[in-house]
């Protein structure tokens, strides 16, 4: 876990990994306090469950990976947009339209043979997500509409549109949810269900986790190795200088939002094609996986590899939380506690970032006011 | 000798830096005392200590011989210390009068009593010959007038010690003369003035004494009567500096860059900000566009470099029509931008990335969409070596952490190394100290001697007079004069810039 993160932090000064760990520690501490308040007798056992539940048996390890997959994707989505200086809060919309597109292809396009079927479904999800990112991107680039506002609106448009489309195209009336996709559209298990089992019950993990990790690596390469990534980051850091250097920053904004949307959309497909009995319920709720990408990206410091680990960590807490039911914690309390840990981790990191920035700025001010070394020797 | 303010042995440290190292400054009553030093020499820090914004680690401040503690600007105010900041601290949508009384309003039962204030302000402005209209909005008056408001603010508070922080940076030559006169009058009335600057000519003309700081250390105090500009600059920089720009007469060749009836309109206001500008730059000459800030220079440069659209007219580069060409289609045109941090650099990128900001996409640095880091680093090292760019960690240094002078050197290196035909340099020495200015000027002249055409946009009259081969004066978006530096005086140039004299129709 340490190594790949370290590489990236040459730029940030190497302290950041430690700061992520500290943020997590703060989150856990606050979570424990809430546990103590809600159920003092069982607090320690409950805390142990949340800490170790994720590794209590092989099935749970598999569940961690399964739960990590969608939030890694939405985390990558948020992190990628952030590199271009954009805040993609449109995850829920992009996620659900991606999921719908995948299910539509998975249910209806049975003429596609074998593996081609699920690949086509993933592609459809990518395109649908990209479209949902494209619109806010265009509005931002050419009409200067704040992407946060247009993304939030696109979330609702996406949710209601998908509800409508599920009813009219792939509706399972009995359960008020989407139909099951064809077997050929289900992502292969790749033997993971043989490894991650406890007794007779296998975990839901499937090849989607590999796709998510692959996506993380691809994003990493794009952002830090390519000309395209150089341009996107330049636009994010300083759009005036980018314009001065002849970079088309409008195109950058559009491309960045499209890719971010595609990542979230793919996340939707990976969850619903996982063959774990997930269907789109026709309810008026935004996809939580979309929003959860934000703390994942924050905790992963917007770095693709960091995001993979942050996603796994948050999934680990979620799975640990399920185990707390053994100790009479009601599911709502469990959700509160996991949420508290996640958000406190993310926010203490954010806070630390703020403080650091302020210190940096103050030092800079002091430097400009006072720098004595080096300057006068020049020329 | 009576000192009104003494700062003795002041030491102020910031993490990693001693900004003021045992600095002593003694101000006599009724004198104009210049504080001279390069950027980063510790002038601002010292004044911030005097004004109560920083607490020194060591040293004492004495007022009229009595040790005092100045914990915040209010303390300073109570001791009669006032300051005109380089960037004025005025409320734009308040009137002059409201700005002057702000913070010390006379009130009766919670209601403002402005009549008294108005009387006092009128009296003060008459006494010191500072014309102001008390009811004008600050946003409507000129920069010179705003400065007078700042001075009146200090006088209204009956401050005895007046600090002027780089007061002439924003003024025209005529306004500078006026300010100098005001300063002399104030000193004659018994006010003591601290005058922070790095312009030697101003010190020579107005100051009584001058204290010099270098790298946070106190170098010495001299009587201006026995000082020379050369001597002061040597004290400031620590070595002999060439104040005159050495150059051979220009040998202009063919026209490289040319505009015809160029017009640019400001979208927001609908006003024509560049009005029928026709100019040409020949090979081997430095053409300077001189003018007071905000007369259309920025818009003109944006139109020339492809950053903003042109309304009408034509731009030609090496015989090619580039009026509507994009930035990258203007091959052979390099641009040192006006604001190095806003346009010239991506501050959060390392130096090496910044050095390839204009060329990262060339086959040298980019293959099949992938950046070639090895090649980029080698190239950056080479430029750093050749142009003597100083930075903490070489090519890996974040541009943000470099000094202004070295940031500018990096931009100059990058733009010159593109081997352009035409170089547009906008205020290339803004905010730099003597050493760096000397360096940048010599680079511009070297490029000229190699047969490049250089368009220099400058607000600094010394730069305009010393570096250019031809001067075009811009006023309200129009070119109002085409002059040769040998045939015009600074005063005349100032009149053209202020719009009160016109040379060409």
Number of domains of chain A: 1
Give, in spatial order, the strands making up the sheet with the most strands of chain A: 1-2
Percent of residues of chain A in helical segments? Answer: over 70%
CATH level 3 topology of the largest domain in chain B: Rossmann fold
How would you sum up the major sheet of chain B?
6 strands, mixed
Main sheet strand line-up of chain B: 6-9-10-3-11-12
CATH architecture of the largest domain in chain B: 3-Layer(aba) Sandwich
* Strand content range of chain A: under 5%
The Cα radius of gyration of chain B reads: 25 Å
CATH class of the largest domain in chain B: Alpha Beta
Mean of all residue-level pLDDT scores of chain A: 85
Task: Tell me the number of helical segments of chain B per DSSP (H or I, 4 or more residues long).
Answer: 16
Strand content of chain B: 25-35%
In CATH terms, the superfamily of the largest domain in chain B is: P-loop containing nucleotide triphosphate hydrolases
* Stretches with pLDDT under 50, minimum 5 residues of chain A: 1-14, 369-379
Number of DSSP helical runs of chain A: 15
User: Greatest chain-chain interface?
Assistant: A-B, 33 and 61 residues
Class inferred from helices and paired strands of chain A: mainly alpha
Describe what you observe in this structure:
The complex is a heterodimer of chains A (379) and B (505). Chain A has 379 residues and is an all-alpha fold. Chain A has a single domain, classed as Orthogonal Bundle (ABC transporter involved in vitamin B12 uptake, BtuC), CATH 1.10.3470. Helices cover 72% and strands 2% of the residues of chain A. In chain A, the strands form 2 sheets. In chain A, strands 1-2 form a two-stranded antiparallel ribbon. By secondary structure, chain B is an alpha/beta fold. The termini of chain B are far apart. Chain B is built from 16 helices and 24 strands. In chain B, strand 23 and strand 24 form a beta hairpin. Chain B folds into 3 domains: 235 residues, Rossmann fold (3-Layer(aba) Sandwich), CATH 3.40.50.300; 175 residues, 3-Layer(aba) Sandwich (Rossmann fold), CATH 3.40.50; 74 residues, no CATH class. The chains are: A mainly alpha (379), B alpha/beta (505). Chains A and B meet through helix 10, helix 11 and helix 15 of A and strand 2, helix 1, helix 10, strand 20 and helix 13 of B.
